[in-house]
Design brief:
homodimer, mainly alpha, 434 Repressor (Amino-terminal Domain), 5 helices, globular
């Protein structure tokens, strides 16, 4: 049986953010590369964000939101 | 007559975030000092965030949200 995750321990916000970003990006039908181009962020940086390895800051959150045509708060909706 | 702000030019996201943070903090009835203590962030850093001088990152947004008892997305609601 796989170990159960402790329900009282929240996931790392960077992971939750990365998953939500990937979900929204796919909903819009963009590849990581296309979103990188659209937002002006480096493709490798974007990959790190989606994998939860980056502590993304406000201005980059807003750049991604503009590129995805969603309000910035939508990217934090699952947190 | 004061110069009109161009309606098509959005405010800097750091300023909008800082105003929303100050609004929510006051709604909860916390001083900057109390919020700093509650969130574990430095008071001077928090002041800079509220003045729109800091590009706050995800983990600190989440720390402030926990301290204010609001979802993190609430802090980006006005963006």
């Amino acid at each position: 049986m796989p170990p159960k995750r402790d329900q009282t321990e929240p996931l790392d916000p960077r992971l939750v953010f990365g998953r939500q970003l990937a979900t929204l990006r796919k909903q819009v039908g963009l590849s990581q590369e296309a979103l990188a181009l659209e937002s002006g962020l480096a493709r490798s940086y974007l990959g790190g964000v989606e994998r939860g390895q980056r502590n993304i800051a406000l201005l980059n959150i807003c750049r991604l939101a503009v590129a995805l045509s969603v309000p910035p708060s939508k990217l934090l909706e699952t947190l």
